[in-house]
Design goal:
sphingolipid metabolism, 14 helices, 34 strands, N-acylsphingosine amidohydrolase activity, Ceramidase_alk, nine-stranded mixed beta sheet
């Protein structure tokens, strides 16, 4: 093959108890278990002839982090030298709002997590590195196919009143106010002809799970990836087993709970259903220009009246907190997550099965760091009309939140004024300079984060932008959330620049995708027209009304350099703030079970059904005495297993990386001892048989003591 291709995947699930989730900025949304695990998924492509390559990493995380990128690059340099650098690695987040936070270095993004969370940060960095190493070790000659198609009813525009402010003639060029196109790459091993992975890009928010959810989840894109990978691995499997339910029920009655037992640090890895030996198919659902796209496709309604929210402000009687978007499974957010995930998964399967357009041509990349706080932007070709970007700032519409997750009472999307009380509170933190207030207009400056440096920088100034080329496919790595129209303008500008400067190397078949939330994070990028409305996306467009023109200008420079084969200068390096991070969150200090009990003992066993057998859709559950899951993340292991009796052996058939299995951790109300509840929603594909639930965990008696690992299983039960 013309290319070398390799894929990799690694568990990046962070602390599953007591850690604030990143996304909704809800101080009370702290992890309390796992719905399904988070992963870092990587593909690497290289030219066979000269080894020119790039790596693309897709994270089941809210967004990329500059500090994460910095530390990943340091570790890769130690292992690979200059083979993988900031120029040819892209690290992109899917934008789930249900992953542990505390891994970004700028203060504004770690307030609700009470500062930096080392355990969360380390899990992400390690997973990225391991997934890249795995993909690198898997490099072999292969082919890459591309296919595009529309995903139906997986996203709607959550700020349609802002979108309508874009010029009518521009809007008339597009059939929808969101981008429905999914672009998929299919990777095939040249020697065997077998597919090894597929990555796709499509824009919809990771907000099917609400701001009240406490279970770690990859949301709809993480779910789609799990469905896709399981679909591929199960295509040739048979699940027909002849059963006698009566005999099974009698057998299950004789099998009681095991009680708590000691085990080893890696024991749970042996109970994983999908063992990560580097041979597994890797399917990734990547993010794009997601800024104003919500998966809550039924629309936004007032929770008091049931009527649609105010169109311009997304509020109810002036109250933003009453306006909530509804997913297709409303009021069941997990069902909504499943449905939106399935809609992306099904389209990916269609594209995967029909992908015959083989990519060929050059692999290339360009990368630059830019200080976005003072870019001089030329708005016309003459150079006579120039404007500047501003230091970062947030407006009152940011505080209002969105229909996916309302913010603070007293604010509405579209606010361009701040009341006296909030101004006084703002000024206690930092009164914005007059220059800042003028520069950001019509945004009213609620928080001048770009002028705040105590105890360290609140917001980024220097950001990376990047272009990756794989034949006729161009990937634009952007460190934020472009709205639908902002993304369209960027894609169009880059394509025109490549065609006009490439001496025929680029044409109308050149395909541009935006990889959102990549390499760093700087919130939103709205169009100039949308900025005037100051809804959430505009109020969160940090660098003022000309943020998008600045991005377009700088990306055109990169595109021109790529088209002409010219190198680019690195630009100013972003800071490494790891040495000044504050952390106010408390680590667990030691756990012990109640007197006379062991960790892994049953507190509440399976509640056996009256007819003796569970049916598909039922939820058998068991609760175990357990310790805080932060003592060990059980990376590439599992806290929860469903075992099936096959002959005389118990075989793991589901674990905490499955959509149907829930691991929930809590403290007992009176004694404050730890409890782990395992709940299994019996899937429609479950084979009739005898099952039990197993729990794994780790404990410490004191902060500095050694870890003790334990397990325990419930009584058996029958599924018919």
């Amino acid at each position: 093959g013309q290319y070398l291709v390799g894929v990799g995947s690694y568990d990046m699930t962070g602390p599953a108890a007591g850690t604030n989730m990143m996304g909704y900025a809800n101080l009370f949304q702290n992890t309390a278990g796992i719905h399904f695990r988070l992963r870092a998924r990587t593909f690497i492509v290289a030219e066979s002839s000269n080894g020119t390559r790039f790596a693309f990493v897709n994270l089941d995380a809210g967004m990329a982090s500059q500090l994460v990128t910095t530390k990943v690059l340091e570790k890769l340099k130690t292992r690979f030298g200059n083979l993988y650098t900031e120029e040819n690695i892209a690290i992109s987040g899917i934008h789930t709002h249900a992953g542990p936070g505390g891994y970004l270095q700028y203060l504004i993004y770690s307030i609700t997590s009470l500062g930096f969370v080392q355990q969360s940060f380390d899990a992400i960095v390690s997973a990225i590195v391991q997934s890249i190493v795995q993909a690198h070790n898997n490099l072999k000659p292969g082919s890459i196919f591309i296919r595009k198609g529309d995903v139906e009813n997986a996203g709607i525009n959550r700020s349609p009143s802002a979108y309508l402010l874009n010029p009518a003639e521009e809007r008339a060029r597009y059939p929808e106010n969101v981008d429905k196109e999914m672009t998929l790459l299919k990777f095939v091993d040249a020697a065997s002809g077998k597919s090894i992975g597929a990555f796709n890009w499509y824009a919809t928010h990771g907000t099917s799970m609400s701001r009240d959810n406490l279970l770690i989840s990859g949301d709809n894109k993480g779910a789609a990836a799990r469905f896709f990978e399981d679909w591929f691995s199960s295509k040739n499997e048979s699940s027909s087993i002849t059963t006698n339910i009566g005999k099974l029920m009698e057998k299950s009655k004789t099998i009681k709970a095991t009680g708590g037992q000691q085990c080893g640090k890696t024991t749970s890895q042996g109970f994983k259903v999908r063992k990560n030996d580097g041979s597994l198919f890797v399917g990734a659902f990547c993010q794009s220009n997601v800024g104003d796209v919500t998966p809550n496709v039924l629309g936004a309604f007032c929770i008091d009246s049931g009527k649609p929210c105010d169109f311009n402000h997304s509020s109810c009687h002036g109250d933003d907190q009453l306006c909530i978007g509804r997913g297709p499974g409303y009021p069941d957010e997990i069902l909504s997550t499943k449905i939106i995930g399935e809609r992306q998964f099904q389209k990916a399967v269609d594209l995967f099965n029909s992908a015959t357009d083989q990519l060929s041509g050059k692999i290339d990349y360009r990368h630059v760091y830019i200080n976005f706080t003072n870019i001089e932007v030329v708005l016309d070709g003459t150079g006579n009309n120039t404007v500047k970007t501003c230091p970062a700032a947030l407006g009152p519409g940011f505080a209002a939140g969105t229909t996916d997750g309302p913010g603070v009472f007293g604010f509405q999307q579209g606010d361009t004024e701040i009341n006296k009380l909030w101004k006084q509170l703002r000024d206690v933190l930092k009164k914005p300079s007059q220059y800042q207030e003028e520069c950001q207009k019509p945004k009213a400056v609620l928080l001048s984060s770009g002028e705040m440096f105590e105890p360290y920088a609140w917001a980024p100034a220097v950001l990376p932008i990047q272009i990756l080329r794989l034949g006729k496919l161009i990937i634009l790595s952007v460190p934020g959330e472009f709205t639908t129209m902002a993304g369209r303008r960027l894609r169009e500008a880059v394509k025109d620049t490549l065609i006009n400067n490439g001496n025929g190397e680029f044409d109308n078949d050149t395909h541009i995708v935006i990889a959102g939330l990549t390499n760093a994070y700087s919130q939103y990028i709205a169009t100039f027209e949308e900025y005037a409305h100051q809804r959430y996306e505009a109020a969160s467009t940090l660098y003022g009304p000309h943020t998008l023109p600045a991005y377009i200008q700088e990306f055109k420079k990169l595109a021109q350099a790529m088209a002409k084969g010219e190198k680019t200068t690195k630009g100013p390096s972003p800071p490494d703030l790891s040495s000044v991070q504050l952390s106010l969150s408390l680590n667990p200090t030691g756990d012990s079970p109640p007197a006379g009990k062991m960790f892994g003992d049953i507190k509440e066993d399976i509640n056996q059904p009256k007819d003796g057998s569970f049916n598909k859709g039922d939820r058998p559950s068991a609760t175990f005495w357990s310790a805080n899951p932060r003592y060990d993340l059980l990376t590439e292991g599992t806290y929860a297993v469903v075992e099936m009796l096959q002959g005389k052996r118990w075989i793991p058939v589901y674990d905490d990386d499955d959509f149907s299995l829930y691991f929930k951790w809590s403290l007992e109300n009176t004694s404050f001892h730890g409890l782990a509840t395992i709940e299994w929603e019996v899937p429609t594909k479950a084979i009739p048989g005898v099952y039990r639930l197993r729990h794994f965990g780790s404990s410490k008696k004191a902060v500095n003591s050694t870890n003790h690992y334990f397990t325990g299983a419930s009584s058996a039960f029958t599924v018919s």
